[in-house]
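Narrative summary of target 7.
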Amino acid sequence: MISVLRIGDFARRAGVTVRSLRHYEELGLLRPEWVDPDTGYRWYATYQVGTVNRLVALKELGFTLEQCRVLLDEQLSVEQLRGMLRLRRAEIQQRIASDTARLDEVAKRLTSIERGLTVTNSTLEFKPLPALRLAQVSAEVNDTVEIPTATRELFETLTARLESAGHPLEGRGIRTYYGRPDGSKIDVATGIPVGAAADPIDGLETVELDREEPAAAVVFRGPPDEIADAWYTFEVALEEHGLESYGVNRQLFIDAPDGADEWIVELQCPVRDRGSGCAG
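Modeled conformation, tokenized:
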């Protein structure tokens, strides 16, 4: 004789909620052993506790309820079960690898920011920025995350056009960034300083940067991919002085003494009292 329990007692025995049992029934995953036709009361056999335990275990492994249905099918062969479990194992391993990579990136960014704050606070200098005449190539981006790709492409274009004009580029030039006041775009450019009497260079636009005062600068030394964090810490350092950057920010390449893996650059920007206007 089959031993049966009412739905509430069965739910407590199986360690699940009555709501879950009703949901499993709706999906055809676990049907009551018997439903009283007069009262509608649901009765479950005690042996079905094992089915619930397997279902819960499969869910904890990350299988969907539809996959659980297949895995609980008595007709499923051992080889089919083994294949589904191997696939799930591969999915979990991939997720772990992705999460580990993200954790490494977070740790890297934290280290970069902490190091950047130390460097920024030790090299922060308030000084006027000179007027500059630049021959450059430019582009517009929608967000700061697009800047690295844009600057890389601009540098390649600048290098090619200077070589064609017989002016080989030395170093990495000067990069400028201007966030439009309405927040719509960021103007990004890479160029070289040219004298007032210099002839225009084919394929390059000539722009004039005004002298800026007051202004601030910090020296960054480290991997190029950490420069974005250096700009962030630069802004944090300015906040401590009650200031903010605005207008055209400049990034002046100084040297790469240890090769391409480490740069020395000076980050420069006009400054003003915080809250005195919309940062640009």
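The two ends are 80 Å apart (CA to CA).
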